[in-house]
Amino acid sequence: MAMFDKKILAHKLRRRGKSIIEIANNLKVSKSTASLWCREIKLTDKQLERLNASKIAGGHKGRMIGAGVNKQRRLDAIQLGVTEGEKQVGKLFDRDLTMLAVALFWAEGAKTGSRFMFINSDPEMILCMYRYLREVEGIDNERFHVTIQINRVHEERIQKILKFWSKLLSLPLHQFSKPYYVNVIPKKIYENHDTYYGIARLGVRGGSSLQYKLLGYIDALKKSNNHMSG
Question: Is 0.70 topped by the overall pTM?
Answer without folding.
Answer: no
